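Blinded run. Sample ID left blank on purpose so nobody reads anything into the name before looking at the predicted structure. Input follows.
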Amino acid sequence: MKGVSALALVLAPLLCGAAEVAGIRIEDSARLGSQNLVLNGAGMRVKLFFKVYVAGLYLTQKADSTAAVLAINGPKRVSMTLVRDLTAKQLTDALDEGLRANLAPAEFESLEPRVERLSAIMRAIGQAKSGSVITLDYLPGTGTRVALDGEPRGNAIAGEDFYRGLLKIWLGDDPVDKSLKRALLGRGG
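Blinded prediction complete.
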């Protein structure tokens, strides 16, 4: 019976509906529109030894490869809980850098007007403080929506191709953080 009790203590944190990364609680599910999403994976974004944010990837079903994630139809969410203050310039520079590193020039060019709209939304946010949560949601028929601490920012940006491009920032061939890519794909950091 002791073995069962010990096993229950080990499994309890896994069954309580949340994961934890660097002290940040990450819910194991999210609701987007009328769909329930499951946490595919979560991890820490580190840049030059600095912890930047904890990201979580939510999908309608689990996927363990970039191709599988990009092939899933339906709503998706990337959640970023900041562990340091970020300026609008830092947000937009990181966005631009991640997209250019992972999209072919023609693909980037086709998305550029929508990238500029997203950058304008990020500039309007101004500065995001440590502890803030930025979500990038994709809803079919609506597009990509940005929220800061649950408050919608700007108008939705049309096109599933745009959201797939955004996902490549974290999941592409040259992701912003290789360890974070593995974590978001549910393969550990």
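Unblinding after everyone has recorded impressions. The chain has six helices and nine strands.
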